[in-house]
TrEMBL record:
Pfam families: DUF4328
Keyword ATP-binding in record: no
Organism the protein comes from: Streptacidiphilus pinicola
Keywords associated with the record: Membrane, Transmembrane, Transmembrane helix
DUF4328 domain ranges (all copies): 9-116
Highest taxon, organism lineage: Bacteria
Transmembrane segments: 18-37, 58-78, 90-111
Protein's recorded name: DUF4328 domain-containing protein
Keyword Nucleotide-binding annotated: no
Amino acid sequence: MCAFADEIWPEGQRRHRAWLLFGWFVPVAQVFVPKMFMNDLWAAAQPVERRCRGHPLLTAWWLAVLAAGQWADGFSLLKRATASTARDALHHLALSEILYVGMAALTLAVVRRIDRMRNGWGARAG
């Protein structure tokens, strides 16, 4: 999809492609670089007259990714749980699973929406 964004709107891409990988691992950058790429991809997929970065769906998706990442230690809490803390650990695990399901649903919605916009470009070009 980045090749698509580079082809359609090369001047709209704010970061070099190497940041696609580095953006997930560089400590501070991992909070904003992946979302920045998605915003750029979203904007590139829009018709020129409606092109803008960001969308509430992208923001909801990214907040779900961050929230799920914060609660990702549910299993490790459950392994260390004692009889008195097992209930809290199970609640933590249930919340993390709910967040992961929400994140997966939003990821699917974002990918399908961008794919529809991308396919619209093929129809406009052909």
